[in-house]
Design goal:
The protein is an all-alpha fold. It is built from 4 helices and 2 strands, in the order αααββα. It has a two-stranded antiparallel sheet. The longest helix has about 50 residues.
Length: about 140
């Protein structure tokens, strides 16, 4: 990812992934008959913003192709002649892999934390209900 470009960091990737998955999530919820707080208008608006971010990133790369002179892309070969700047470096691929890997890690960590928190709340509610039930039962018995 390129530093300094809006939408190119992990926050931008997270937003893009969330926005692009939002219609599928909403459709699944509606097919199950569950209520969905996100309207179709809001989804279209979010998708338009995501398309703008993707278009902006693509346009930046396209414009950089015009701004960067060909001499900077050319490199001397073994024979001393300048050859095209086809990069054989693994840095762009590694950078993309790290960004997507970090995003995947964050998404999995958030899901795990959400499920652990929900389980804790369910356990506390069950314990509280059991205590209230036992107190109510003991009060009821004391009236006999």
């Amino acid at each position: 990812m390129t530093a300094g470009l809006p939408g190119a960091g992990i926050g931008g990737l997270f937003y893009l992934a969330s926005t692009l998955l939002l219609p599928a999530r909403s459709l699944l919820r509606r097919l199950r008959g569950e209520p969905d707080a996100v309207t179709w208008r809001h989804q279209v608006h979010s998708l338009a913003i995501a398309a703008g971010i993707i278009g902006g990133l693509w346009m930046t790369g396209w414009l950089l192709g015009f701004v960067v002179p060909d001499e900077m892309l050319a490199r001397p070969g073994i024979d001393g002649a300048l050859h095209s700047g086809v990069s054989r470096s693994a840095i762009p691929v590694a950078t993309l892999a790290m960004a997507v890997g970090t995003l995947a890690f964050v998404l999995v960590a958030v899901e795990v934390a959400h499920h652990l928190h929900a389980a804790t709340i369910r356990r506390r509610r069950a314990a509280r209900a059991a205590r209230c039930f036992s107190i109510a039962c003991s009060r009821r018995r004391s009236w006999w």
